[in-house]
Amino acid sequence: MAAHSLDVELPPVYCPLESSLHPHVHDVERRAVQWIDDSGMCASEREKAWVVATHSADFFARFAPVADDDRLLAAVQWVYWGFAFDDARCDSGPLSSRPAQFNALAGQVQRACETGLAQPEDRYARALQDITRSFRSFAPPTQVARFVHAHRAWLSGVAWQIGNQAVGRMPALDEFLSMRMLAAGGFPTFALLELATGAEVPDREMHRPAVAALTEMALMVASLDNDRHSLHKELSRGHADQNIYTVLMAERGLPLQQAVDEANGLRDRVLRRFLELHDRVRPTAGADLATYLQGLRYGVRGNNEWGLRVPRYLSQGHWPDEMEDTRLVWADEPSDLRPGPPAGAPGVAWWWDEDLN
After folding, report:
1. Rounded to an integer, what distance in angstroms lies between the CA atom of residue 200 and that of residue 123?
2. Does the N-terminal or the C-terminal CB of the chain have fewer CB atoms within 10 Å?
3. 66-106 pLDDT per residue, tens
4. What UniProt keywords apply to this chain's record, in alphabetical order (predicted)?
């Protein structure tokens, strides 16, 4: 993608969802930055500065604006940790195209997530162990187990992505969507909703096919939005690899601008289906499931508000001072009104099943 023009036009974002922000976000951020210092996970001041610049407190404070401060802090610590680990070990670090070495580290990291008994060698694994110890101090085992399982799903997706990178393999659209859902880290991020808010969704509700579909659709929209947020930065640096645009360009022989438009339509179709299914499930949801579903809505919107401003995705590398930033341009209507699932993606077509319950 390095040869493509930086003047590609990104369409406005369709996102008719509620916006909210935790009132104590700045205090939580201050406490989280202190934890980053104390955790030892950053090897240098430069590395720490880039982790702090992810503004992860702002990110997750938009997902869980009603959370208890201490619970929110623990969740935010994981988000800071997740971005740091992704940058250093997954996305562009030395293991980003070395699957065997990454898998060995991922095993150690996942075990640190699961148990507090062993003392891991890796600094990120030790910091993760501290975070999950906090989770266990205030959350029931069911909610912690859901996070642990979601964490494993994320690492499996990253391993899948790194395996492709190692052999220069561009996945087809259907495979990419399944991989992206995992590798983007959305499953553990949304699993944090219960930990932060104190909601305890019963298994019979959380594992309903309709709720599973809503979770997958929310994180798919957020994942595709993240590809959008990072596009200009990746173009300017010439290192874009597997994202929705490169996949569509390779599979369908599209120029970049057309791939951007096609991806936007796909994303809007998923969000439209999310809204339809949400409105069918929400009226009969119990109180805890309703809290979780609202967190999905807050998360999709908040990921956009954060992602359109955060230095991680901006080639300018700074945090805009005002929310009235010119990047926050919202569409009044979805760009694709066609019914049913998108073509070429049978792995997600079940989201449109009318028998979902």
Report:
1. 31
2. C
3. 999 999 999 999 999 999 988 776 666 666 677 898 999 89
4. Lyase, Magnesium, Metal-binding
For 8, counting Cβ atoms within 10 Å of its Cβ (0-12 exposed, 13-18 middle, 19+ buried), the class is middle
Mean pLDDT of the region 36-63: 93
> Rounded CA gap, 221 and 65, in Å?
20
CATH number at residue 110: 1.10.600.10
The verdict on residue 5 lying in a domain is no
Task: Report yes or no on 192 lying in a domain.
Answer: yes
> Taking a C-beta distance cutoff of 8 angstroms, is the pair 225, 303 a contact?
yes
The C-alpha atoms of residue 40 and residue 308 are separated, in whole angstroms, by 29
Q: Which residue has the tokens 């439209």?
A: 272
**Has residue 158 been placed in a domain?**
yes
Question: In b/e form, how buried is each residue of 225-242, taking b as 16+ CB within 10 angstroms?
Answer: bbbbbbbbbbbeeeebbb
Position of tokens 């049978």?
Answer: 346
Domain limits for position 181: 14-352
DSSP string, 223-287: HHHHHHHHHHHHHHHT---SSHHHHHHHHH---HHHHHHHHHHHHHHHHHHHHHHHHHHGGG--H
How far, in Å, are 48, 70, 75, 81, 256 from residue 25 at the CA level? 19, 11, 12, 17, 38
pLDDT band at residue 299 under the 50/70/90 scheme: very high
Q: ∠ at Cα 187 (183, 191), nearest 5°?
A: 155
Give Cα separations from 156 to 18, 89, 162, 311, 333 (angstroms). 32, 14, 10, 27, 35
Question: Strand, helix or coil at 168?
Answer: coil
CA end-to-end span of the chain: 42
Please check whether residue 343 lies inside any domain of the structure. yes
Q: What is the dihedral of CA 243, 247, 253, 256, to 10 degrees?
A: -10
Q: Is residue 102 within 8 Å of 333, Cβ to Cβ?
A: no
